[in-house]
Structure to design on (119 residues):
């Protein structure tokens, strides 16, 4: 019974980690797609190139993906705790906190009309 639970949670950690990677891939594809249309569009000639909304969305995708990866690492650390996994988990949590902090700081620095465009 114990082996089945271990196998289940190990598989769950793998699936959650894969979801995090898929979210990153989605974010990259989304950013590239919108960046190409922003560059190719006619509107940027009159108002300049505006990539703030692309950067914000990409940052949100990275933060969401890191949350999934941290969740997967927590599951793996509970199953087989060792110092390497705990250090990796701490590094991921710190990276997520720093990214969240600077993304929120950037969102706050935008004017209210710009903020409403990003939602």
């Amino acid at each position: 019974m114990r082996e089945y639970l271990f196998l289940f949670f190990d598989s769950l950690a793998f699936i959650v980690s894969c979801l995090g990677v898929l979210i990153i891939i989605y974010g990259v594809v989304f950013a590239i797609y919108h960046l190409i249309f922003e560059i190719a569009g006619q509107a940027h000639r009159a108002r300049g190139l505006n990539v703030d909304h692309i950067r914000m969305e990409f940052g949100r995708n990275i933060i969401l993906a890191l949350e999934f990866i941290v969740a997967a690492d927590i599951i793996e650390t509970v199953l087989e705790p060792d110092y390497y996994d705990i250090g990796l988990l701490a590094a991921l949590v710190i990276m997520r906190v720093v990214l969240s902090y600077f993304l929120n700081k950037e969102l706050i620095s935008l004017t209210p009309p710009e903020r409403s465009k990003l939602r």
About this structure: The chain has a mean pLDDT of 84. The first helix runs from residue 2 to 40.
